[in-house]
Design brief:
The chain is an alpha/beta fold and 218 residues long. It has two domains: 40 residues; 150 residues, Vaccinia Virus protein VP39 (Rossmann fold), CATH 3.40.50. A seven-stranded mixed beta sheet has the order 3-2-1-4-5-7-6. The chain is globular.
Length: 218
């Protein structure tokens, strides 16, 4: 009995340590997000309820964390020819960081009108940018994606919508043949991208849980 109690106690300790680390990590990330938002003069941690307009499998909005965003842009090494888009951009954090890069354009695509409103408020207050920023309030499965070269998704919706979005992206290659990359963070449904034979897996970015695919040579 004593041995069982000790094993149970050790399991509890391990669980407490895991929870403690997770809580501390979340607190640090929240503080870091606030400080970096402040540098840009934006607020991307506004808490709100969805207005009910999003697709049935939409995932609740959570902003990407700055350390991962910065590693991503370092890896992507975007140029003046690139048009970067965040599909399901929410309040715009990734788009505003993208706008600090020397690229052709940074685009946010968001279906939820309340999130789009906050994005617009942030755009008005944004302290600095190096490129044009555009917000498209639309369904990513139907939006015009023809000019985009880099697509970013932070797990914004479920498999049903993701399939339609991938098909929409693929269709743009017929009207505007070009090299593109798909960047998928918290890639729950990455098997969907792996199973598209027109895409080629490029790799994970620096153990961040952000995965990259590119279209096969055109």
């Amino acid at each position: 009995m004593l041995k069982k109690l000790l094993r149970s106690f050790n399991r509890c300790l391990m669980h407490i340590k895991h929870c403690f680390r997770a809580c501390v990590g979340d607190i640090i990330a929240t503080i870091d997000g606030h400080l970096n938002d402040k540098k840009l003069n934006i607020n991307t941690t506004v808490i709100l309820n969805s207005n009910g307009e999003c697709p049935d499998d939409a995932i609740g909005y959570t902003p990407s964390r700055y350390p991962k965003i910065n590693k991503m842009f370092k890896y992507l090494a975007l140029t003046r020819k690139d048009v970067f888009a965040d599909l399901g951009c929410g309040q715009g954090r990734v788009v505003f960081v993208a706008a600090q890069q020397k690229i052709k354009k940074a685009i946010g695509i968001e279906y939820d009108t309340e999130l789009s409103r906050i994005f617009q408020d942030n755009l008005k207050s944004l302290r600095t940018k190096k490129t044009e920023i555009e917000l498209i309030t639309a369904d990513a499965t139907k939006a015009n994606l023809n000019e985009i070269t880099v697509f970013y998704l932070f797990h914004p919706f479920g498999s049903h919508t993701l399939l339609k979005v991938i098909d929409n992206i693929k269709s743009t290659l017929k009207t505007n043949p070009r090299n593109i990359r798909l960047v998928y963070s918290s890639a729950i449904y990455r098997n969907i991208l792996n199973n598209n034979d027109w895409l080629e897996f490029e790799g994970e970015i620096d153990n961040t849980g952000i995965y990259v695919w590119k279209n096969k040579s055109i």
